[in-house]
Amino acid sequence: MIHEVSGDILLTKAQAIAHGIAPNDHFDRGLALALREKWPMMATDFRHHANQSHPEPGEMWVWGGFNVRVFNLMTQEGEHTHGSKPGKASIVNVNHCLKHLQHELEKGEISSIAISRLATGVGGLDWKQVLPLIQSHLGGLKIPVFVYSHYEPGVQAKETGI
C-alpha cells in the first residue's frame, strides 16, 4: 500500500529507505550526500563493492547498518573508468531497479519502506513518468510504502501503518 507523504526522508520511521544512484556514484550530491553524511560507512562500502563487482545500471545494492536497510537503486548511467562522472537516469533503469526492489520486498524481511522521488533530482527524470512505475511495482505490496513526493527539510512525515 502506497502512501504519498511530505517531509524529510532521513527522519522516516520505516525500516528501509530506497533511493537512486549511479553505478559509479560518489555520494556527493542530493539525497546520496545526505545519506553519506548520516552513514559514512555506507559510501565506503559502496565504493568497495563498485570496485570489486562493477555494477551496471538497473541493478540494486543493499546496505544494512544502524537498524536500517538502504536499497541503492542504480537508476543512473555510469562508467567505471577513472574520473568518470555519474550520468542521467533512464526509465528503463528505473523499471529494472523497481523490479529488483519489488522482488526483495516480497521476501517479507522488510516491514516498511520509504522511497524518495526516485531519479528526478540528480537523475533528471520527470516525476510524472516515475510515480506510475513505483505504483505499478510496489502498490500491491502488503507493507507500507511511503513515497516522499515533497521534500520538507527537518519535518517528519505522517507515516501511518508503522
Summed up:
The chain is of the alpha/beta class. It is built from 4 helices and 6 strands; from the N terminus they run E-E-H-H-E-E-H-E-H-E. The chain has helices spanning 30-38, 40-53, 91-105, 127-138; strands at 2-7, 16-21, 60-65, 68-74, 113-115, 145-151.
Topology:
Elements: E1 2-7, E2 16-21, H1 30-38, H2 40-53, E3 60-65, E4 68-74, H3 91-105, E5 113-115, H4 127-138, E6 145-151
Parallel strand pairs: 1-6, 2-4, 2-5, 5-6
Antiparallel strand pairs: 3-4
Describe this structure as you would to a colleague.
The chain is an alpha/beta fold and 162 residues long. It has one domain: Leucine Aminopeptidase, subunit E, domain 1 (3-Layer(aba) Sandwich), CATH 3.40.220. The protein contains 4 helices and 6 strands; from the N terminus they run ββααββαβαβ. The protein has helices at 30-38, 40-53, 91-105, 127-138, and strands at residues 2-7, 16-21, 60-65, 68-74, 113-115, 145-151. Helix 4 links the parallel strand 5 and strand 6. Helix 1 crosses helix 2 (40-53) and helix 3 packs parallel to helix 4. The radius of gyration is 14 Å and the shape is globular. The protein starts with a strand and ends in an 11-residue tail after the last strand. The relative contact order is 0.27.
Low-confidence stretches: none
Helix content range of the residues, please?
25-40%
- What's the CATH first level? Alpha Beta
- Approximate strand percentage: 15-25%
Order of helices and strands: EEHHEEHEHE
> How much is the radius of gyration in Å?
14 Å
Tally of alpha and pi helices: 4
How many structurally independent domains? 1
| Strand segment tally | 6
